[in-house]
Amino acid sequence: MTDMTASAPAGRAPALAGRVKAAAILFVLFALFPPVVMLADDPFLVLIGTRILAYAIAALALDLILGYGAMVSFGHAAYLGFGTYAVAILSSYGINDIVLQMLGAVAISAIFALVTGAISLRTRGVYFIMITLAFGQMAFFFFISLSAYGGDDGYGLSQRSTLFGTQVLENDFVLFYATLAVLIGLFAICHRIVGSRFGRVLTGIRENPTRMEAIGYAPFRYQLTAFVISGCMTSLAGVLLANQAEFVSPAFMSWHRSGELIVMVVLGGIGTLAGAIGGAVAALLLEEVLGMMTEHWRLWFGLFLVLMVLFSPRGITGLVEKIGKGRS
């Protein structure tokens, strides 16, 4: 058992290092985005960039359990909703600080993930997918029933969250860099988790849970822990999305949104972390560009996704690695 866990990182080290480098390149490009926007004199693009970063956080969180734990959660957008409504509900009670709102979002997400995960992980395969979908829809319809917060029509925020009593997040550029900082921090945490003994056990459970159980590990505990961590991370994306849009709605937590998160992870490359971020960027940029060209943009987006799956099953990450090997 000791030999297995000790030797695993050596084989994965080059791949992990390469993906960290890819993530670093993405982060540098993100950091350069606002100055480029200022030169283009189109500040609205900063809000689009913030939206992309927030969804990149959600895709990163989902990849932690989908790519490394083989848990296909089709209700993960519920945690986005918890984050957005944490902002709306706490603001209505005079709690406007984003740190406190994030703590509230993480708390409710941890409880929901712990309870629903403990039930969902009793199942496998398509049954796990369907039960997470069912729990996600339960949360969706619960927030639709909250007429005090707009119900199905949503709820407009009077202002963005404060940061330690200041209104700095009212500035779109500050909000962008704050979201980027959260993304970088969460990527570092996920990278550390994946490279740790916990991450190696989680990956082993993905490959063969029976064998891992036979050598002394409890798959349920590891998977449930990862599920809770992922849900809490996704709720942070919801807090940032609420501030970006200055609006909250149950639409943030619909099953369609959960499907979009899965598409982002698949498009970028499952089980790569950096790929999930790249997949979120690619998916949302394609949505914006194709949406400007035609109202039938979903048809062309679907065609692109089919071609990507056929010719690069490992997504954008696999395509980039293939091109890199071809040049070398």
From TrEMBL:
UniProt topology in membrane: Multi-pass membrane protein
GO cellular component: plasma membrane
Keywords: Cell membrane, Membrane, Transmembrane, Transmembrane helix
Pfam families reported in the protein's UniProt record: BPD_transp_2
CDD domains reported for this sequence: TM_PBP1_LivM_like
Subcellular location as annotated: Cell membrane
A molecular function GO annotation: branched-chain amino acid transmembrane transporter activity
Residues spanning the membrane: 20-40, 52-71, 77-95, 102-121, 127-152, 173-194, 220-241, 261-285, 297-320
Designated name of the protein: Inner-membrane translocator
Organism, scientific name: Roseivivax marinus
